Amino acid sequence: MSDTALDVTGWTCPAPLRDRPRVVMGHGGGGALSAELVEHLFAPAFGGEVLAGLGDSAAVTLGGARLAFSTDSYVVRPLFFPGGSIGDLAVNGTVNDLAMSGARAAYLSCGFILEEGVEMSVVARVAEALGAAARAAGVEVATGDTKVVEAGHGDGVYINTSGIGLIPEGVDLRAQRVVPGDVVIVSGEIGLHGVAIMSVREGLEFGVDVESDCAALGGLVQAMLAVTPDLHVLRDPTRGGLAASLNEIAAASGTGVVIQEGRVPVPEAVANACAILGLDPLYVANEGKLVAFVPREHADAVLDAMRAHPLGRRARVIGEAVDAHPGLVVARTGLGGTRVVDLPIGEQLPRIC
């Protein structure tokens, strides 16, 4: 081998390099690249103690009331997919972020960014879906904005929604409250949203129709809190899937997490699709599921309450928080081995929400 130093500046890699000087798709994927963008660029630029919490929504106090406040933008392609649309996502995604703080969502803002040339009938379908989803979730769209960009500078319709809701007294949902011994519960089958988007985007068929799990989780969360307000943390595993949420919680709490791989509910259609495409269901996005870390003494009652709710019928205990390997998520396989479930770099399926 030559001793001449190699010039690697022109090399390319199938996964985005983490020191790239330009934005890549992985920066929006909810994985390590997204986390680094927030931690090293946005958080230092914005500052503030509230932002430092980096939860699905921010818990703030205003006039003596505890409020949850959240914002999200939706750039999904295609705009309509089995089980939902960008309008449904815009409501349910923000409602769910508020619910992960224990809040009852009350009001949303809605910003539409429309591409010049998009059919009015398409905009009307999206708006009608958004309005129907808001009514179903018991939340009111209170204010909004519309902008139009030139043809070729958008993708038909983008939407931003922000939301506020009241956090009940005694509820304190933060990853920092997780302690060893907490039981990890997932509310149902994972991976449906990501596979549904992929199937229509790429024209793939997996033998059965796969529909997105897009749904508002506020009612499910309230049923859980009715058992005990002493839940430790909730997350809705959207971009980056269940793996990203578990890693975020492990890192913030300083605990390890062990899951039993065989107990994670993966529908057969999702498992088959992932096997064909070389994907891991743990990293595939969801839009109507949550993962909860619950004190062991409350776990059975909380699980029963979840299974009594339509959106939690297939809830299941999948693991626990542990003292060992702090900050690390480990899966025990069916063969008796273990594997590290790392934070994804980017995202297996971009533009899914």
Keywords:
Phosphoribosyl-aminoimidazole Synthetase, Chain A, domain 2, 353 residues, globular, 14 strands, alpha+beta, 9 helices, 60s Ribosomal Protein L30, Chain: A, 23% strand
Q: Radius of gyration from the CA trace?
A: 20 Å
User: What is the end-to-end distance?
Assistant: 47 Å
* Approximate helicity band: 25-40%
- Give me the CATH architecture of the largest domain, please: Alpha-Beta Complex
Structural class designation: alpha+beta
Shape by Cα distribution: globular
Sheet with the most strands? 7 strands, mixed
Strand order of the largest sheet: 9-11-8-12-10-13-14
What do we call the CATH homologous superfamily of the largest domain? PurM-like C-terminal domain
Family: Belongs to the HypE family.
Domain PurM-like C-terminal: 180-325
Organism: Streptomyces subrutilus
Pfam families: AIRS (PF00586), AIRS_C (PF02769)
Summarize this structure briefly.
The chain has 353 residues and is of the alpha+beta class. The chain has 2 domains: 57-166, 60s Ribosomal Protein L30, Chain: A (2-Layer Sandwich); 175-340, PurM-like C-terminal domain (Phosphoribosyl-aminoimidazole Synthetase, Chain A, domain 2, Alpha-Beta Complex). Helix content is 30%, strand content 23%.
